[in-house]
Write a structure and sequence with these properties.
This protein is α/β, with parallel strands linked by helices. The chain is 49% helix and 16% strand. The strands form three sheets. The chain has a seven-stranded parallel sheet. Helix 15 (312-319) links the parallel strand 12 and strand 13. Helix 12 (245-251) runs antiparallel to helix 13. The relative contact order is 0.12.
């Protein structure tokens, strides 16, 4: 359906747009979060129980969903419908227009926006992972080397990766050393999980992220460390998150003097060990063994995956720092709205 046809339908049946959005979002939520119960759906989408019950009855009658002992799941036909209506949903919901506007504001190649807000809707984080994994498979070529940072959003990609002819030839590389005590969200853990899901190879970097000058100078001479560092100059794809300054300082167990300095200099965002203020200026960087911002910018493909209205300032600050225009930002409506309305 072209734009003129969509406008004509909208004039004739103005309520059609809201119905499409409602049913699509319910089916989409079941697809990424299923098996799921009715109450979780109404809480996630903030709609009434009666609405959920009626719409699920309709979706069930159309064989788009089915009920199991563990909850409601999406059928293969349901997944097909979601894919077929994806472009239409992006248009009628206004997300396509927001994607273009946000890409222009941030000065980057492309923005992909998923519905919802990570800060209030857990299924939105799964959608971010789904979109990122699909884009990764789209640009994948044989023998690519892919650098991965840690974080809960980047971690969601593992739920949607599977072996393909290209992905199985990848080498996933940890972009950072260790970070705090959250082993399950560290880059070292994620690269092994990505590789396992894709049947690919991986390289880890089991070192403390924040090192003294002496330790740093010593460790970078180690052959096993040097091998990984050399890979950073030839990365084909970088997949990374963007954090708020406060959150990342806490995760790194930063001392009081650093936290005080970050507060005094109004740090709002962090990526790759660099802390940014609202103007995008780098105000602090940790002494770390890992991929450097200059090496990130050299990569042909960069996927930034970050969402939530609370991360809007952090996302905007990061992209003010002369970030590579080839970056693809995959974010949610919560963050996008907050940036566009700023």
């Amino acid at each position: 359906m072209n734009n003129e046809s969509q406008q004509a339908v909208q004039l004739l049946v103005p309520e059609l747009s809201s119905i499409i959005q409602l049913r699509y979002r319910i089916l989409q939520t079941i697809a990424v979060a299923g098996p799921i119960g009715r109450r979780m759906i109404l809480e996630t989408l903030n709609i009434s129980e009666r609405t959920v019950r009626n719409e699920m009855t309709l979706l069930n009658n159309q064989n788009l969903i089915e009920t199991t002992q563990k909850g409601v799941i999406c059928t293969s036909k349901g997944y097909e419908i979601l894919e077929e209506l994806k472009e239409t949903f992006q248009e009628v919901s206004g997300l396509s227009k927001k994607e273009k506007n946000l890409a222009e504001i941030l000065g980057i190649k492309k923005v992909i926006i998923v519905p919802g807000d990570v800060n209030s809707d857990s299924s939105s984080q799964q959608l971010l992972g789904k979109e990122a994994s699909e884009y990764l498979m789209k640009i994948a070529k044989k023998d690519f080397t892919v650098a991965i940072t840690g974080g809960s959003t980047v971690a969601t990609l593992t739920n949607f990766l599977s072996p393909t002819k290209s992905l199985s030839t990848f080498t996933f590389v940890a972009a950072r050393g260790s970070l705090g005590n959250e082993m399950n969200l560290q880059a070292n853990t994620l690269v092994s999980q990505f590789a396992s899901k894709c049947g690919a190879d991986f390289r880890t970097l089991y070192l403390p992220e924040n090192l003294s000058e002496t330790a740093f100078a010593t460790m970078i001479q180690e052959p096993i460390v040097k091998e990984v560092l050399d890979l950073y100059d030839h990365i084909d794809i970088v997949i990374h998150g963007i954090g708020t300054a406060k959150e990342m300082a806490h995760r790194r167990d930063s001392n009081e003097s650093i936290i005080k300095m970050l507060n005094e200099k109004n740090a709002v965002g962090e990526a790759f060990g660099y802390y940014f203020d609202e103007a995008g200026e780098i105000i602090y960087r940790i002494n770390t063994i890992g991929i450097q911002l200059e090496q990130v910018k050299q990569s042909p493909h960069i996927l930034a995956v970050a969402g939530g209205s609370l991360k809007a300032k952090a996302i905007q600050a990061y992209f003010k720092n002369e970030t590579a225009p080839q970056t693809i930002l995959i974010t949610d409506e919560g963050a996008a709205n907050a940036i566009l309305e700023n």
